[in-house]
Amino acid sequence: MWRHTPLSLGSKIYANKIKNANSLWSAVNKHPSQVPHPTSGSYCNLCCAMSIEAVKVVVEPASTLHDEAVSLSVDGLKPKQNITLEASMTDSRGVAFFSYSHYKANDNGHVDVNTMESLGGSYKGLFPMGPIATLSPMLQKHKYTRFFKKDVENPNVVTLSAFKGHLSHDELLDENRREPLSTTSHMRHYMAPGVQRIPVRYGSVRGSLFLPPGDGPFPGVIDLFGTAGGLLEYRSAQLASRGIASFAVGYFGYEDLPKSLEEFNIFYFEEAVQFLLEHEKIVKPNLGVIGVSKGADLGLSMATFIPEVTAAVSINGCISSVQSKLNLHNGAIPGLEFDLSGVKIKNDVMDCYEAVNNPLDYPETIIPIEKANADFLFLVSCDDRNWKSEVYADIAVERLEKAGSKNYQVHKYPQAGHLIEPPFSPFSRASYHKYVGGNLLWGGQLRPHIEAQVHAWEATLGFFMKHLQIHKGKL
Fold first, then answer.
1. Which of 97, 164, 197, 294 is deepest in the core (most CB within 10 A)?
2. Cβ distance 263 to 294 under 8 Å?
3. What is the DSSP string of 207-264?
4. Cβ–Cβ contacts within 10 Å for residue 246, how many?
5. 418, 449, 455, 467: which one is catalytic?
């Protein structure tokens, strides 16, 4: 049964504070993530059902929202039996992601991932959401592939299997690998029951509106991603599942929108605001904006130059208009350029940390957020290798403080990387970027980054509910 529960982050799961490929294809094609998922009650091939039918992988709930934690366990094992717990999932392009972890059953033949430590594999130690949170590309050829979800109306299906013994990565991918003791499926939904997805073509604006179930009205936000371009909808779908109407807006590289980042017009974003405020289910008269990377500086510009935008979440953004000129009603903000001599390449991955010019050396590129009648939430990763997010946030805060403004919050996450996503999204330390035509280093360490995503999501939801004047009970 599909279950939609309130977002709960207060369990011991989050006790830590936040301050060559061709030869593997035969194995991948046989892998559970590449074949139809079993229906409820069918845990593995019939050939192994009789001798091991007592073993059972259990996920509770079996179907849930993507930002929710679950309980994972394995029952029916022999006392002290060693097992490997494997999780696998494919993205919208058919790229397989997986994780594996080693456990030892207790005296009752039971493994409880919530209370027992992993002895090895993709992670070690106590990590209740480890099998799902540590999913990474299965094949070496996809090492620098970021998880991509296009069809948010269908859930991600995670296949979880238990194997006898402690198996290695290569043993799990071997075409002659042993049959699993038990296999089950777990569905993770981006859209709660009743959430509506509405494609939008309004004037020159292109995007998708996600509305929570019910009559509303709901707080409204505009959702912007970075220089990957196109239209990404998964964050908006999850915001709507938490009671916030979210308009995922494309601004380049999508349909008939500009193909490049050379310049943008504030008029385009004003038109997006107009569309959202005209909708009958949106709370008036103010909106929020959330953006990551390039989308974050566009969000800061919206909060500064569009009066109706009064709450802005900046995820690892810059205080300047990076790379792109932003045309205003009167004048323009020039783009802050890159110094390519600052790019470092190691193991075919570009580290751009030193490649962006210092905003303080080019004050004309800085967005004057101190003039905004808006509240700001800065979510900052201290191990961001894409650029100096922590430095940019400090500049922003200094400008606000100098102007006498106290309308901001800052959360800094040590050892988190550039790509802060909603909870339990696969972590990517480096991935291919089509705009630059190479692999970019995003930074971050696996466990701290995953914990940062959980905290940042809760902070984002609370921020919008507070500043868009909707009682948190509507979540």
1. 294
2. no
3. EEEEE-SSS--B-EEEEE--TT-S---HHHHHHHHTT-EEEEEE-SSSTTS-SSSSEE
4. 31
5. 418
Distance CA 266, CA 280 (A): 24
Which residue bears the tokens 């993507």? 66
* Six token digits for residue 95: 């790229």
Q: Which of 137, 133, 160 is nearest to 424 (CA)?
A: 133
Give pLDDT tens digits for 73-111: 999 999 999 999 999 999 999 999 999 999 999 999 999
pLDDT tens per residue across span 312-327:
999 999 999 999 999 9
Q: For 169-212, write each residue's pLDDT tens digit.
A: 999 999 999 999 999 999 999 999 999 999 999 999 999 999 99
355 vs 113, 323, 343, 359, 417, CA distance in Å?
42, 12, 5, 12, 17
Q: Which residue has the tokens 């279950």?
A: 3
Residue 285, preceding bond cis, omega within 30 degrees?
yes
SS3 per-residue string spanning 100-166: EEEEECCCCCCEECCCCCECCECCCECCCCHHHHCCEECCHHHCCCCCCCCCCCCCEEEEEEEEECC
**What pLDDT digit, counting tens, does each position of 215-252 carry?**
999 999 999 999 988 999 999 999 999 999 999 999 99
Of 208, 293, 314, 405, the active-site residue reads 293
Specify whether the backbone of 58 is left (phi greater than 0), alpha (psi in -120 to 50) or beta: beta
| Residue from 246, 321, 384, 433 carrying the catalytic annotation | 384
- For the chain, helix, strand, coil in percent to 5 are 25, 30, 45
For the whole model, what pTM was predicted?
0.88
Q: Which residues contact residue 378 at a Cβ distance below 8 angstroms, ignoring those fewer than 6 apart?
A: 314, 317, 393, 396, 397, 408, 409, 410, 411
Identify the weakest region by mean pLDDT among 175-179, 378-382, 412-416. Answer: 175-179
pLDDT digits (tens, 9 = 90+) for 200-217: 999 999 999 999 999 999
Catalytic site includes residue 384: yes
In a 13 Å sphere around the CA of 328, the CA atoms on its Cβ side amount to 16
Q: Cα(111)–Cα(83) distance, rounded to whole angstroms?
A: 9
The radius of gyration computed from the CA coordinates of the chain, to the nearest angstrom, equals: 23
Residue 203: CB atoms within 10 A of its CB come to 12
* Catalytic residue status for 418: yes
